[in-house]
What we know:
Elements: H1 2-30, E1 31-35, E2 50-54, H2 56-59, E3 68-72, E4 80-87, E5 92-94, E6 105-107, E7 112-116, H3 126-129, E8 132-133, E9 137-146, E10 152-153
Antiparallel strand pairs: 1-2, 2-9, 3-4, 3-9, 4-7, 5-6, 7-8, 9-10
Amino acid sequence: MLRNALGKTFRFLGYTVQYGCIAHCAFEYLGGIVVCSGPSMEPTIQNSDIVFSESLSRHFYCIRKGDIVIVKSPNDPRSNICKRVIGLEGDKVCTSNPSDFLKSHSYVPKGHVWLEGDNLRNSTDSRYYGPVPYGLIRGRIWLKIWPLNDFGFLRASPNGHRFLDD
């Protein structure tokens, strides 16, 4: 009887570890569902919106300007943030706030991206903590799942004027 109980326990533990590994690989390399919080991406993503984040883009270095990404926070590695990619390595970006009279510019260093929230007046982003290492990107958001009346692909940045081409 003890042998039977131990056998069932070890089988259960084996299946748990096996399915845990499969789930980890799926979330790490394919993507997952994310609940966004905070006002920094309004009006594109509202507080408590549910989105799908895919991870293949970051592994194949396919992140482009305008993409919305989930990133490990440079200020708090235990939390993730959701921001839009404004500049890639080598790009010239506007580093000042929209309300500043004199505009300052900088270049994004190699291996980094420049991130900003769509709600520029209420976003802690690269204007505050500087360029973010590419390795902190966890995934790219490409589909809004909830609320259902807003289901679909994400719209373009309301701050398109902040993308510099020179």
